[in-house]
Amino acid sequence: MGLSIGILFPLRLRLWLGKLLFRPLGPSTVRVSWHRLIKGPCDPPEVEAMQYVASHTTIPVPRIYAVHTQENGCIYIEMAYVQGGNLHSAWSGLSTDQRDTIFADIKQHMSSLRELLPPTQGIVSSALQNPAYDCRIGARFYGPMNHDEFHSLARGHLCMEDVALFLGEEVAKVHTARYQTRFTHADLAPRNIIVRGGRVAVIIDWAFAGWYPEYWEFTKAHYNYFPSQD
């Protein structure tokens, strides 16, 4: 009964009550019941990615119950709250066997993600071939575009003739090589991997996900901290 009444409350009231009754989950995420949370404002690529991955793989993604679009266009995603702790916080308390099992889970889930077939090779876009977003590139949406256009955007449209001189030979090699297109989470940090009972319970925060050159997952992983004491 309480859950049904809660759903009937206006979104702003539910968010206010959630902040009052539950501990904060993050700057944009509010738990609104024992089994649900609301995240927002969000961008369309996050909704697209979560729905696409849920319908095309067995990767554990939070179940979406509703997408609330406000009059100003802001999107709030109402999704399942999954019990557990993030891998960053849980790491020191895990046994060696648990760590091995979690790594095996991550490897399996990433393999499933990379086995997804792109709509077109060489594309950079959201899951549904709409504009994508990644803070690594900038504050604006971009695409759909091809890999060459993406690389030009990533280097600030610096001419290829000048890339080696100003950015180095390695960047020049990366921006002239040919790549397969793979579906990419693009923020696979330990804070976004929720574990419970020594297994991966859910993978969260799909805001930057979409179709990218095959190396982008690896590149973005280097922008995130991972415990390195072991």
TrEMBL record:
Q: Native species of this protein?
A: Tolypocladium ophioglossoides (strain CBS 100239) (Snaketongue truffleclub)
Keyword entries, A-Z? Signal
Among SUPFAM superfamilies, the record links this protein to: Protein kinase-like (PK-like) (SSF56112)
Ranges in a coiled coil: none
What is the protein name for this chain? non-specific serine/threonine protein kinase
Enzyme Commission identifier(s): 2.7.11.1
Q: Please give one Gene Ontology molecular function term for this protein.
A: protein serine/threonine kinase activity
Annotated Aminoglycoside phosphotransferase domain residues: 45-227
| Reactions catalysed, as given in the entry | L-threonyl-[protein] + ATP = O-phospho-L-threonyl-[protein] + ADP + H(+); L-seryl-[protein] + ATP = O-phospho-L-seryl-[protein] + ADP + H(+)
Q: Please give the Gene3D superfamilies that the UniProt record associates with this protein.
A: 3.90.1200.10
Which positions make up the signal peptide? Answer: 1-18
Provide the top EC class: transferase
